[in-house]
């Protein structure tokens, strides 16, 4: 049995954080929670306390700050994890400010020792480590103070958390002495900010390294483990599946090699605004059933608008939603967190065993990222997890130009992450705007690469014949092959 398996842990109770910590903080250790003012240290510490109390433990919260407990509890009262019924019996607050001022670090150690025993505390929070450091007459005395806290933690089986303000230096002396260091940050990117958490140290234990985004919500902190780290290894073995899933578009299934989209693959659908990408996605969703549940995850149109559009196309999507065969999740295009979006989607897939996924708007994920350099890695790992879960994914990517040959991928190297690629485009021909569809790629399968004209009717997308008899089609402005010049309105 490995050392990691034998370590007893104290779960934080913070969604996502325990995944990063591989189950929680090592029990009986001493851990620093640090970060600039306003990043959420006090909320995190109290969230740990109340979760510990719910699990039957007892928490002692010692403050070295001049702020009164009444003021702190007033702010905590807005958090759902706060439970006033647990005060005194399971969660106790005491002030060490006066003792520290009058008796120094030695007096503070005596207070902590006495209260741990009196309260039978199994975890203790010391809020305001900077005050203790400022009171120390030397660096040696401060180190001895940390060492004494470690002794008390081990002697009484109490896990200790020290709240500290980040100093900006790589490693403070106390960091070398403690068992764990968790850092909260607030990253600025142009006009927005995004909170993040780093585990800088966790002695004797593995953890997910790097920065992980989090939010402060009415429930407290919610952490979103970075997708590349959390799913570096897929949650289940990948399988090669031989099945096909119908797109719901007559004729397109044949173009894709017969039967539709290969099962458990990722398909990109490129095209300009208004060309019919969402319509095709709705038809794909309309093929969902009890054995192939569907999920529509979109950024642009609300569920009522999507259901209205589906009804006008003659699709019974509303009935499938009522039966639980399709779920529609809408995410407004506000300031989103990229990893939060991915976790919300994966949770919805796991909840219903989704087999069909229509992601309407890859741009929503791209715009949510504050680190453009990680987007291709993010999608590579994300797509691998979808495949491993047996999900057949169709997502839309908007191209910039309405007319013209350009089908520029929104992310460099994106085409290599897709098994299949479908392009929808406009072309001007004989003074009319026409819609064309082409299959550009189906991995490990034959496919029909002909350009097909299509129209959108009250029955959805209808493919017509091959678009023949014209040249320079991909320029966006087609002309008859028999003519040496573009057609004029009089000739149409």
Automatic annotation (TrEMBL):
Assigned EC number: 2.7.11.1
Keywords carried by this UniProt record: Hydrolase, Kinase, Phosphoprotein, Repeat, Transferase
The KaiC domain, residue ranges: 8-237, 243-477
SMART domains linked: AAA
Gene Ontology molecular function terms on file: ATP binding; hydrolase activity; protein serine/threonine kinase activity
Top class in the EC scheme: transferase
Keyword DNA damage: no
A Pfam family this chain is assigned to: ATPase
PANTHER family: CIRCADIAN CLOCK OSCILLATOR PROTEIN KAIC 1 (PTHR42926:SF1), PTHR42926
Protein name in UniProt: non-specific serine/threonine protein kinase
Organism: Dankookia rubra
